[in-house]
Design brief:
37% of the residues lie in helices and 17% in strands. The protein is globular, with a radius of gyration of 25 Å. It has 540 residues and is an alpha/beta fold.
Amino acid sequence: VTLALNGAPKAEIAYPEGCHSVEKFAAEDLAHWVKEISGAELAVKERKAEGKGQETRDTIFVGASFAKGKFDDDLAKFEGNDGFAIREKDGNLYLFGGEPRSAHYAVCRLLEENTDIIWARPDPGIGTVFTKSATLDFRKTDRIEIPPYWLHGLDVCGIRHDADMNVWSRRNGANLADDTDPRTKGSCGLLSMIYGHNYWRIANPKSDLKDHPEYFGYNAATRKREGETLCLSAPGLVDLAARRFGAMIEAETAAGRPPVDWLLLGMRGTWFCCQCETCAAPIVLKDGTKVGPDDGELHASTRYWTFVRDVCTKLRERHPEIRYYGWGYHYGRTPPACELPKWLHCELDMDGDYKGIPYLDPRQDKTVRERIRKWNELLPGHVSYLESWFISIDSISGGVPPVKGVGEIPCWQRNLRDMAHVLKGAGAQTYTCPDASRSAGGKYPISIEWDACPAARWLTTRLLWNPDQDLAALKKFYYTRTYREAADLMEEFTEGVDRGTDKGTLEDLLRRAVAKAEHPNAKAMIRRQLDHWLLLNKGK
């Protein structure tokens, strides 16, 4: 299909009448990049999915409605997933998949396969690199991809409400980017969630502690009820949690936002648990055995997961379509002794435990391996994994962050492969941050994390979609497309960070790369990396 010839448009783009906004965005995004590359301005039209004129040649149909009756075998493969297909028929192209966002996945892979474009980082000014060409043909037009997990996204922690991050994530195949801004939520077609440290959505110490101290954790040292955690054995707390989370779920649809896909009932980021007599008492299990305080973390985990189970059971009676999660975090990471329903999910946060060794590797600590296997026995196919090996916002606000490169990517890839093929996990996500100039803790711009190593974030999105890719080839693809003339120097720099190459050599590589790069966006990205490298290593 020829889209542009000597700068003149030779095709048009169609999106379905009454479609989701993300399918319309996908069609418009395709037209945008065709114009950026070739100068040709393709017409973008709304069309009925069935009707006269659909068979006109040289049309790119964006959206699943157009595929019905033509690619039904493909559509059947997308049941329950957000895979995508690129198909050609009678001189037209069809871009579609299992969810509205899948159309945008297809658009971006089509562009990536047929041009040299790369969305290297979310920065809208310099983050996309491509070569201009007045004539543009699409020759690679037959592709289908289905991700191995339901969840394959990014947890954009610290600072949210970032539209550029959401769009970049989707362009690279992620289905989560922490889209929490009520003004834009749903417009990107990402998964909708109620997530995080949300104990205070149940009972907030600012508004509830005075009138209902019994909802909050008892501190044996101070002999007071304090707002640090909840008293999970408090009478009425399960009902209160179900009411308040239920109200949040219903508020989303009432406001015209997408229905909630998943709800995670997460504890505070603390090891502190309520120490009242009831919470500290042994828990009697269904078979009559007891788990008590002497069992340590198992006791705290069983108390927490019993609460999660009871709250989510009530919520599921009214909203069975939602995936309900507890958090395998802090004391909740230990598989509990209580019985859990098979519909429940666990998001397991192994941060700090695996120490750079793949989860199931024989070198891994036996406790870690057994914990993961036990969780997958308790909730087969319903365990997701949260990795947080990227630099965190907290580390920036506390001081100069370390520069992390791509050294942990091979471990990440092995874990993703095991999740897909051995553990049959429900998905994975990893922490990152927006690529924005806003400051963290008044100290450094958020974008300093991206300047540390943008390659690692891009590689993460691709491995989340398909962990079986050739990592060396994937890296080469990124370096070549992003840094162009300076690809060899930037590859040496990025890999050298993890090898412990001395700072003087690394700085020299960045300076040479700035001088060698010719593409303006590539040069700008490298210069930003050099500026922040000098800032972070000042006086060292």
